Amino acid sequence: MQGTMSRLGGRVNRGQLKCYASANALPKQFKAVKPIGDRVFVKVDKPRPRSVGGVLLPAVEMTSSTGGTVVDVGDVSMVKSGDHVIFSKFAGTDISVGDDAHVLLKEEDVIGLLPENELIPNLTPLSDRILIKCAKAENTSSGGVLLNETLEKPNFGSVVKVGTGRKKEDSDEMVKPNVEVGQTVMYSKYSGTEFEEGDDSYIVIRESDILAALA
Questions:
Q1: Each residue of 52-109: pLDDT tens digit?
Q2: Closest Cα to residue 104, out of 144, 139, 72, 142?
Q3: Fewer CB within 10 Å, N side or C side of the chain?
Q4: Hey, is 121 helix, strand or coil?
Q5: Among 208, 205, 179, 177, CA closest to 192
């Protein structure tokens, strides 16, 4: 699953190569893009060299995160111009403006707010999303024997942050997620968006993907 992702979920290693070769190029006579409705216009972060053991990798190995800075917004309530956001990898429409990559997204495709260069644990999830630190797979048996076979990754973890909630249909009333920071929860497999930060894994999921609280 490393290096892959779908609209329903996937893994992001703080950025994987995203191809903008097929992005729509903004014609030179136009200088700005004004989002309409519930859309936001984001300038995508430039790829950064990734090193292994301090060795700089070739340009083809450079990675670009699914993050960027909001340039302009339509009729939205959760983000504003200047915010640095993380968004669903294959969401939206890619648009190149000059030499810069941009993406036109629905606000719902914005996963959360994360100041540039900050670590994933500092991400503020939006709407009814929940940031979870994933449990690590056991690599030894109960008798202390090292297991060699590929282990299935656990689908539970500890809640790190909780979004503000979703609006009720036909109402401005907010409904907060029914989970709390510090709880251990079980969630649906193949849901959400996964991130790796050092040796730790995190996932951002919708409240509807939580199956149970564990104690």
A1: 555 544 433 333 348 999 999 999 999 999 999 999 888 899 999 888 899 999 999 9
A2: 72
A3: C
A4: helix
A5: 205
Separation of alpha carbons 23 and 104, rounded Å: 11
DSSP of 76-127: -SS--TT-EEEE-TT-SEEEEETTEEEEEEEGGGEEEE--TT--GGG-EE-T
- Domain check: are 93 and 190 in the same one? no
Q: What is the DSSP letter of 48?
A: B
Q: What tokens were used for 86? A: 């993380």
Contact 183, 2 (CB under 8 A): no
Most confident option among 59-73, 164-178, 188-202: 188-202
Residues 148 and 207 in one domain: yes
Find the domain containing 175 and state its range.
Answer: 119-215
- The single-letter DSSP state of residue 144 is S
Give the pairing of strands 129-134 and 156-162. antiparallel
